Description:
Helix content of chain A: 25-40%
Radius of gyration of chain B: 21 Å
CATH class of chain A: Alpha Beta
Number of strands of chain B: 2
Distance between the termini of chain A: 37 Å
Strand order of the largest sheet of chain A: 6-7-8-3-9-10
CATH class of chain B: Mainly Alpha
CATH superfamily of chain A: P-loop containing nucleotide triphosphate hydrolases
Order of helices and strands of chain B: HHEEHHHHHHHHH
Strand content of chain A: 25-35%
CATH architecture of chain A: 3-Layer(aba) Sandwich
CATH architecture of chain B: Orthogonal Bundle
Structural class of chain B: mainly alpha
Oligomer: heterodimer
Distance between the termini of chain B: 40 Å
Strand content of chain B: under 5%
CATH superfamily of chain B: MetI-like
Largest sheet of chain B: 2 strands, antiparallel
Largest sheet of chain A: 6 strands, mixed
Number of domains of chain A: 1
Structural class of chain A: alpha/beta
Radius of gyration of chain A: 18 Å
Number of helices of chain B: 11
Number of strands of chain A: 10
Number of helices of chain A: 11
Shape of chain B: globular
Amino acid sequence: MSLSNKISVKEYNFYYGSFHALREINLDIKVNEIFAIFGPARSGKTTFLKSLNRLTDLIFESRHTGTILLDGMDIFDSKINLTDLRRRVGMVFDLPIPLPMSILDNVTYGPRLSGITQKKRLSEIAEKSLQSAVLWEEVKDRLHTSALRLSGGQQQRLCIARTLALDPEVIVLDEPCSGLDPISTASIEQTLTQLKKDYTIVLVPHNIQQASRVADRAAFFLNGDLIEDGPVYQIFTKPRDKRTEDYITGRFG
Amino acid sequence: MVAKILIWMAAFFTMAVMALIIFQVLSEGLPVLSPRFFLETPRSMGREGGILSPTIGTIALTVVAIIVATPLGIGTAIFLWEYTREGRISRIIRFGIGCLAGVPSIIFGLFGFVFFVIYLNMGWSILSGGLALAAMILPTVICTTEEALKAIPYSLREVSYSLGGTKWQTVTRAVLPNALPGIFTGIILGICRSIEETAVVILTAGSSLIIPTSLFSPVRTMSVHFYILAREGISMEMAYGTGAALILLVLFVNIIANWLLNRFIRKKA
């Protein structure tokens, strides 16, 4: 089953008002892979990620055409439960945004929203998620202190743990290392490669090197167009499109 | 350089005027204050005795006003900022709130008199006065709450949604707890305005000196007491004593509020 498609995007277009942000995107993301989406700023990468769990619904005067299938189910179907979808497709943002509450409350925020109230169950979820995000050892003795006291790298791993606590199937990360130092970046990359076993990961890396380090496959976005996608080694060594090559070799972007 | 001097002078004069007023009232009033002054009801129209019943009246009216205005005001602000997109309806409501904020308090008094006291037949009472005060402080509570909500970054809401939160969960669990210090400031402003208000109260709560026994009892507040004592030349000494007590009460409310707020913030950070 490792080759089956977790997410299938078909002829997807997205508009902010009259601005056409994504054009005719066709893309398949497979189960248990790390899929990287890279390209210069304002290429529609974040819009694409936010489309996957319909955070784009919150944007005023936006609309889309085309479909996105998650396990073959249309996520824009009116029967889809939006809350369930967002739990299945967890998101980590570009800047660590801990909710201003304790570390424990941050991690258990999602489970608590879904109605889990048992303290024991919640602390089990918290421990498991924090361990998966490689943060447990650093915070296990101070779970009740404010999450705002953690360092930037710890905060971002907390945000990953918070997403893992939802028990998602897909994890979407939008430049999760953009505000971090190289050491924190390395530990997050290490976390991602460990998580690949259990989750499908869609990542907007904060630079091309990161894409080549952690991703299995990648797609190059430019001004709302998907230029090309394929295995990372192929994209970075033998890009089919001239624009991809120019971007990778640093001629623009 | 000139600008700096001007700004300093502006600040200095503001402080000086305030200090002068407080000094004047306290220097005349503090000698009158004694435990008996606080614990006795006024006798012979306020020439003798203390200010127990006006103090109770002030507190009762303020409590009613805050209990009514806080949920209404916070609810309105949440509706305006979280649940509506900027459009015709929200513009009309905001315009209304702006007008309400600019209305002189005597008009609220007149409204309260006509509507609560006479039309709804509540008479001069704690309830009438409290409701009229609530109407008066409502715009303050709404505006400060809305400002507090605006100060919460959008990203925080996005995080809550992305973790499977519904709109209601996002507002009540991620947004409101963080906006609480700002909302609290609005409530404190409302409390202080209720305590010191005279015009509204004199028309809606009456000026009885008897200790109230129910929500429908008429009461006199400290500021009304001060006004009547001074205006009708009953006793300037007692008037200043009441004024000093009023200033101390407002000071006390502010100190307690600040202390609570700091404790709350420290607990979270």
